[in-house]
Amino acid sequence: MKETGKVVSVEGRQAVVMIQRSPACEKCGACKFGYRSNEMLVTIPNHLGAKPGDQVELSLDSSQFIKASAVMYLIPLFALVLGVVTGYMTGDILGIERQLCGAITGIVFTALSFALIRAMEPRLKRSNQFTPQMVSILNINKEENGNGK
Hints:
Elements: E1 2-11, E2 14-20, H1 23-28, E3 39-45, E4 55-59, H2 62-94, H3 98-127, E5 133-139
Antiparallel strand pairs: 1-2, 1-4, 2-3, 4-5
Helix pairs in contact: 2-3
């Protein structure tokens, strides 16, 4: 998956890049969990030495895209199914109607899976595993060249 963005600021070895969400980007969630705006700020490693104002191309490897999608969709789905089955099997033991217990337990397990994903987010960000990488500078900010043209 490739996107283009504009470097807003540079903080040490990191660049803050503003990107416009494409339709594919809106559905992914790899960059920002639950971010709703059409514009998104992403902090990424600045291996190319981009400066504020530069247009850059970002890329997320397709295998990483698939892994990020699995984390965002398959883990909660698995938690929902596990919760429903667990609740259904333990409903009689707890003296609660099986279907009701399964539904409640499924919802609780799903909510817990989202909380777990949210808790894992800082560690995943530090690993840069699901972070887009800057692959090229499309145009260098002319103000930085000193000629202003």
